[in-house]
Amino acid sequence: MRKSTNAVCARCLSGSVVTASPSAMTSPRGISRSARQARLLWNTRAMAHDQSPAYVRPPVRQAGFTIYFEPLNFDMPLILRLQSEWDDDYPVIRQARPSSRRHGLPEVDIFAASWPMPAIEQSTPALNTILSYQWDQLSFRWNFDGDGESYPGYSKLSTQLLERFRDLASAVNDHTDSQLKLQGAQCSYTNSLTDASSFGWLRGFLGEWRAEPGPEREDMGFEYVGFRCRRVDRNAPVGTDREAWIQLDEGGKKDAELDVWAIVALQQGDTDSDSETLDPNETAKRLMDDAHAYAIDTFESSFSEEIKKLWEPK
Predict the structure, then answer these.
(1) Strands, DSSP E only, in the chain?
(2) How far apart are CA 236 and CA 67, in angstroms?
(3) Do the beta carbons of residue 25 and residue 236 sit within 8 Å?
(4) Which helix (H) or strand (E) holds 280?
(5) Are the C-beta atoms of 155 and 260 separated by less than 8 Å?
(6) What is the pLDDT of residues 60-117, one digit of tens each?
(7) What pTM, to 2 d.p., does this model score?
(8) Residue 144 CB neighbour total at 10 angstroms
């Protein structure tokens, strides 16, 4: 693990956070609108060619991708149109509890969601892929089903989400004669710690993977172990504020899992101009790719090279 990443973790334990250097946080607001639009489009295309590390048997057990936008009028005509368009691929439909937003995004009041259906879930019959949508967000979640299925990969799953987002943007445009205003995106992974114990992972993570073997959770009489760490920075070329979290959980009947998630938000002051100059579909891909890149960077720095070899790099 890089020393800079461990420095973040050490400071997280004291309740503080680490930001990027001042030079990395330079605001792009001095750039003309046309120049900023060209820059954002270039970065979107550049990220599309980014090759993230790939493994034959990654530890991923659940992957989730979410696009956030300004709240809209989530009424029945809009809901019925989306249901009918997505019914072939996601025939299982049910009402769901509205999802709140994580820290780092503009706040909304989930209790102000419209009735009778504040949130909808549509899924495949096997329930291993679930599409969720509500008045301020669209999400896609993949679950490992335990039948030999491997992680399909970000490219395939994000494409499904972005195709559904394109449907939503078109429906909103037809229904309200306006377009969605994007606010941010989230990429999350739940990983099984089958190749390292919770205490073993924690010792390695905080000790740059040089720590000596030691007692395990059960040896010390602990029923539960948990750890959470946060890092933040600003991606000036893309125009986003970013934060990523690592969370370890193990105890009782719960197997050890490591959650990694990243949230990116359009920098305040740029949201309206970006919405006016960029197609929502381009903006959604840009935000989703940025969230994924930050999540993967956090994930990769959270494991030793020895552990990664067990996943069989491609």
Answers:
(1) 60-69, 92-95, 119-123, 129-134, 137-143, 182-192, 224-235, 240-251, 254-266
(2) 20
(3) yes
(4) helix 280-300
(5) no
(6) 999 999 999 999 888 888 899 999 999 999 999 998 888 889 888 998 887 766 655 6
(7) 0.81
(8) 16
